[in-house]
Amino acid sequence: MSFVTSSFPAACRTRAVGRRDPSGISNLWPGAVTQGTRFGVCSARVKLRGRCPVCKILALRIYHCTLNAALLCVTFGHAFAAAAVPQAIDAADTPRHGVAGRVGSGPDTLPDTAQIVHEKGQRLRVTPLKGLERPWALAFLPDGAMLVTERPGRLRRVHANFTLDPEPIAGVPAVLASAYKGLMDVALHPGYADNRWVYLTYSKRLPGETDADWDQLYGPAGTAVLARGRYDGAHRLRDVEDLFVADAATSGVSAARIAFGADGKLYMSIGAPSYLQAEGGTNRVGSVHDAQDPASHAGKILRLNDDGSAPSDNPFIDVPGYHPEIYALGVRNTTGMVVHPGTGALWEVEHGPLGGDELNIIEAGRNYGWPLVSYGRAYSGEQTGDGFGPILASPSAPGMEDPWLHWSPSISPGGLAIYMGKRFRDWHGHAFVGGLRGAQLHRITLTPEGLPRGRQSLLLSLGQRIREVREGPDGLLYLLTDHDRGALLRVEPLGE
Ligand SMILES: [Ca+2]
Question: Structural domain of residue 215, as residue ranges?
């Protein structure tokens, strides 16, 4: 612990009051504190992530009021200069919010040129396309170009020749941009070739909410919105309108993913507030219990018509007390959602608390358990409670769906894709999940019957938080890195 405190500038009287991580994750380094613990008089936090620039092994990343970010070598104690977080390409029209805008960022360690990465039985060429600020999601256009969202509120076009159009696409609604909010998902209408509808999800500031109200870590309160506009194929969305505004106000985390189903309906995930309201947590608005509240959209999977209305055959359409848009309940914070291209089933990945990240196959009317049950624990290390962990000690309960697969310790999943291409010969039908805290591309091996058989961590050597995973029309994998100076990565096989 003294190592941490002595590394802080003398101007700050930070005192370390963090706790040891009982999961053992941080015990690699004696004295390390629980991930994400804030202590002292500033917002300093320690996260177990990153690589030492010298030995290329594990480093702790520290955020601090006057330091921005520094790495501490865990393995050999290598010393190197603290690197300030660059504030490149700042968004002129969308205010940032203190340390919140930099959560998870740090020195840009991604090389500018293509890298050959050796994985077990596979050589991969990873080609970066830089110049994106906090990219969040991407969608392929019919001509092979891509639309990429940037969390601060911009929609960008990447041409089919893998170059970034320098001019953002105009017409995106004004978003509430903070650590975990902003412009999020993008999807094309199934009839895009005729109607040119592009769907977006974003965070909207609550009426009356001002910058003075913002929470130190998460920013001002907002709610998730579904919008659409017609893309002119160049630099403008027209006829932009909000189709659906969720009743899910939170000053905490709330991601919103969308996917069009085989039934032509739009599925939309809404994150649950992470903490109890006004019980020592940081949420001023919203509660973790909203995920089980049928009169709240928070912590739900919604099913919508393409105009944002509720379909008449939704599972709770006639059930008193339920919002009619609800398709499934009890999700925590969905960061990846995709319709399986082979089976048509809706697959979803979500963050657990300390451990307990989940992959669920979402079915109508089911309850996925949060915050009652989880394979994770409270951040304190206790099995339950304190507003961060599950309420019940058992990871299963009657009427609650067990996850199809779960991760402990957490990889903090990003996007999700099912690979159906032929370029990666041995990966056909496998699931790919981005790893944020896990800083990897995670592969889930499936049996021919579609059951999970194994897992592989790919691209660990790049040390990048992977926010998004998509398969391109060329059969290659495309990733987005979660960084202030983020990148699109094209991954192609080179054989063994
Ligand atoms: Ca669950």
Answer: 115-495
Ligand 1 centre to CA of 164 (Å) is 38
For residue 93, tell me if it sits in a domain: no
Query: Which three-class secondary structure state does DSSP give residue 211?
Result: helix
Residues whose CB falls within 8 Å of the CB of residue 3, separated by 6 or more in sequence, listed in order: 31, 72
Total domains in the chain come to 2
Residue 349 CA to ligand 1 centre (angstroms): 10
Examine residue 39 and state whether it is found in any structural domain, yes or no.
yes
Q: Among residues of the chain, what percentage have pLDDT more than 90? A: 62
Whether 220 and 367 share a structural domain: yes
Give the distance (Å) from ligand 1 centre to CA of residue 340: 19
Ligand 1 centroid, distance to 92 Cα (angstroms): 39
CA of 25 to the centre of ligand 1 (A): 22
CA of 366 to the centre of ligand 1 (A): 11
Strands 58-63 and 45-51: antiparallel
Give the distance (Å) from ligand 1 centre to CA of residue 88: 38
Distances (CA, A) of 353 to 289, 314, 385: 14, 30, 11
Q: Is the pTM of this model over 0.85?
A: no
Whole-number Å distance, alpha carbon 123 to ligand 1 midpoint, is 35
Task: Please give the distance, rounded to the nearest whole angstrom, from the Cα atom of residue 412 to the centre of ligand 1.
Answer: 14
Q: Calculate how far, in angstroms, residue 228's C-alpha sits from the geometric centre of ligand 1.
A: 30
Q: Compute the distance between CA of residue 474 and CA of residue 458 in angstroms, rounded to an integer.
A: 20
* Cα–Cα distance for residue pair 164/490, rounded to 1 Å: 13
Do 152 and 296 have their domain in common?
A: yes
Q: From the CA of 326, how far away is ligand 1's center (Å)?
A: 16
Q: How far is the CA of 330 from the centre of ligand 1 (A)?
A: 7
Instruction: Kindly list the strands in the beta sheet with 58-63, ordered across the sheet, starting from the edge strand earlier in the chain.
Output: 45-51, 58-63, 70-73
Q: pLDDT tens-digit profile of 326-383?
A: 999 999 999 999 999 999 999 999 999 889 999 999 999 999 999 999 999 987 788 8
Residue with tokens 């840009």: 108
Compute, in angstroms, the gap from residue 405 CA to the centroid of ligand 1.
10
Q: Compute mean pLDDT per 10 residues along the chain, 496 residues long, and list them.
A: 31 34 31 32 46 60 44 52 28 32 67 94 94 97 97 97 98 89 96 98 87 66 95 98 94 90 97 68 77 96 98 97 98 97 96 94 98 90 80 95 94 96 94 94 90 93 96 98 96 88
Whichever domain contains 439, its CATH number is: 2.120.10.30
- Name the residue among 111, 192, 15 with its Cα closest to residue 487: 111
Instruction: Compute the distance from residue 177 Cα to the ligand 1 centre, in Å.
Output: 28
Which contiguous run of DSSP H or E holds residue 446? strand 440-446
264 CA → ligand 1 middle, Å: 26
Q: How far is the CA of 378 from the centre of ligand 1 (A)?
A: 14
